[in-house]
Amino acid sequence: MINPFKSLKQKVFPSYLGVDIGTTNIKVVEVKQGEQLPRVVNYGFLQSSGHLLRSNDVIQTSSLKLFSEHATDLLKAITAKMKVGTTTVLASLPIFSVFTSVFEFPEMPENELEKSLTFQARQYIPLPISEVAIDWMKVGEREDDKGFRYQQVLLISVPQELIKKYQLIFKGAGLNLKLLEIESLSLGRSLIGSDQTPTIVVDIGSRSSSVAFFDKGQFKFASQSDYAGSSLTQALASSLNVNPLRAEELKKEHGIINIGPNYELSTIMLPFLDVIISEVKKAQFNYQSQFFAPHNTERLIITGGGANLAGIEKYFEKEFNFPVIKASPFTKFEYPSVVEPLLSELNPTLTVALGLALKEFI
Ligand SMILES: Nc1ncnc2c1ncn2[C@@H]1O[C@H](COP(=O)(O)OP(=O)(O)OP(=O)(O)O)[C@@H](O)[C@H]1O
Ligand SMILES: [Mg+2]
Question: Can you tell me whether residue 84 is helix, strand or coil?
């Protein structure tokens, strides 16, 4: 039987773009309602590959600089190539560009909580309060031994100037920015959802890595490090005296699988992975000291392009007493079958962009 509503349905369900502007890559996914799950209908990413040769040729740096024109040009190029079917964008802010802190308050009505938070924010944020946008979310609660109840609140503040920059970047590329959120929330949506397991998500990007903690399906805490994928590339380039583009190839080709002639490559890269691991442990310590008796972590999910380093899960697993797994956000989506063979590499790369688009479907 012909279903008269089928074509109508296709028109009625709009699509959305999830856009992740990293330090050296921009990733875009287009998602619309599928038969059972949201469906990834299109994706694209562009790297500012010049960053390997010239360290200043990046899209943004962790010292809060976002190079708007560069980002607009790259976005225009990707969306034109993808022939996107919508202009509506959900985008993420890297964790290094926002200030986050956890505060504990006695239980109180929401309007009083807001006043107390604004007061706390003034003490804590290193910018005048008029220059930041403040958001907050409840991330936990506890009862002390006398029966007093406390709530833990995560305060997120974003420089207004940065928000304006993002608005201009998207406007310049002919897109409508519908939502900006910190990338840890997008990671949580695509990797954790309502899963209750206490989890650490480590996102190893190009110039920065982030470590985010989740428990009972809720985002709790995040921190960042400047050690990431390009630390490994630079180490190879200088130790082997090869150009960074060649070093990048060697890294992607051999990873840290310690066999035969590749042994030397691993020994050059491992000290930098060790630094990332120690940053994860430091973040774990900070998380534990900010939250009263948090549940023990039961798994670690690695994501970001750096998670594609061959052998990385095994290496991480030796350092932690819980399973380490590579991100697989595509399990929450339908997608064209041609994507199947690429999934292993796309999964960690598109985790943030997919989590953004997913927001429209839950
Ligand atoms: N197969 C691979 N093996 C090892 N490293 C890889 C592989 N594929 C990509 N990478 C690394 O992943 C990094 C890019 O990751 P990603 O795309 O997540 O960065 P980004 O989002 O631009 O950066 P950031 O998150 O720091 O802003 C690069 O350092 C790249 O070398
Ligand atoms: Mg990234």
Answer: coil
User: What is each CA distance from 37 to 31, 183, 195, in whole angstroms?
Assistant: 10, 22, 17
Asked if the model's pLDDT at residue 247 lies above 90, the reply is yes
Mutate which of 93, 232, 308, 315 for ligand 1? The one with the most ligand atoms within 8 Å of its CB, which is 308
Q: Three-state SS string across 304-349, please?
A: CHHHHCCCHHHHHHHHCCCCEEECCHHHHCECCHHHHHHHHHHHHH
Return the ligand 1 atom nearest residue 25 CA. Answer: 22
CATH number, span 6-98+159-361 = 3.30.420.40
User: How many other C-beta atoms can be found within 10 angstroms of the C-beta atom of residue 354?
Assistant: 29
Q: What is the CA(1)–ligand 2 centre distance, in A?
A: 47
> Using CA atoms, how far apart are residues 242 and 261, in angstroms rounded to an integer?
17
User: Could you give the angle at the alpha carbon of 329 between the alpha carbons of 326 and 333, nearest 5°?
Assistant: 150
Q: How confident is the model at residue 124 (pLDDT cuts 50, 70, 90)?
A: confident
Rg (CA), the chain: 21
Name the strand (E) or helix (H) holding 232.
Answer: helix 229-240
Q: 335 — alpha (psi -120 to 50), left (phi > 0) or beta? A: beta
Task: Quote the CA–CA distance of 308 and 248 in Å, as a whole number.
Answer: 12
User: 62 CB less than 6 Å from ligand 1?
Assistant: no
Ligand nearest to the CA of 231: 1
Evaluate: CB of 311 within 6 angstroms of ligand 1.
Answer: no
Decide if domain 99-158 falls under CATH 3.30.1490.300. Answer: yes
For 41-80, how does the pLDDT look when each residue is reduced to its tens digit (9 = 90+)?
999 998 876 666 666 566 676 555 667 788 898 999 999 9
Please state, in angstroms and rounded to a whole number, the distance separating the CA atoms of residues 201 and 187: 8
Q: Where are the domains of the chain?
A: 6-98+159-361, 99-158
Q: Is the CB of 186 under 6 A from ligand 1?
A: no
Are 307 and 301 contacting, i.e. CB atoms less than 8 angstroms apart?
Answer: no
Let me know if the fold of 6-98+159-361 is the same as that of 99-158: no
Q: In whole angstroms, what is the distance from residue 175 CA to residue 91 CA?
A: 11
Which of these, 269, 300, 304, lies nearest to 283 by C-alpha position? 300
* Burial track 185-196 (b if 16+ CB lie within 10 A, e otherwise): bbbbbbbbeeee
